[in-house]
């Protein structure tokens, strides 16, 4: 939830900064024009990179806990997220906590497709339907989230491999592309899409409702 709020907050800031300073600089007595689609896509990427520095360590800890398959909890290396964080920081410092940051940044670069298509769908629905504003936000939010996962999912699979790679001398993937090659060698192209269907189906309702709430708040705020 913190990650999603950070993304939407930084997205709004980048949209305004790009519109006011690059795409449509303010001039007296001129009506301010809307940010173009490319601006929304760029704001999405910048927001993705920004939130990566918040989400990176969280996703790293989560990934390591998820691959502890021992039925006997006493045999697991980490007893929980706090224990995992302490052990990684004690042995590897902040660099250890941010292990996989480059893969996280690459994955969130695809936010350009999410927020670029969100603007495309929003304009199309506003211009060609009589849907209410919340309904437009719902459909545009859900559809754009699915576009995002269609374009980004392989990079997310590779990111997970990087984040669960052993730390220290036993590291298998010194570079992102090393993990990508391993996924292909083990399972071919299908390996990049493992687990895609449930993720894709979940993306629409979850993000559609989140965008409805976000846009409602933005409309309620003063200009």
Order of helices and strands: HHHHHHHH
Helix count equals 8
The major sheet is characterized as: none
Q: If you compute it from the alpha carbons, what radius of gyration comes out, rounded to the nearest whole angstrom?
A: 20 Å
Known CATH architecture? Alpha/alpha barrel
The total count of strands amounts to: 0
Shape: elongated
Q: Residue share in helices?
A: over 70%
Query: pLDDT below 50 for ≥5 consecutive residues: which ranges?
Result: none
Instruction: Report how far the terminal alpha carbons are from each other.
Output: 25 Å
Q: In the residues, how many domains can be counted?
A: 1
The assigned structural class equals mainly alpha
CATH superfamily, called what? Mitochondrial carrier domain
- Do you know the CATH topology? Mitochondrial carrier fold
Report the average pLDDT across residues: 93
Instruction: Assess the beta-strand content as a share of residues.
Output: under 5%
> Given this structure, which CATH class is correct?
Mainly Alpha
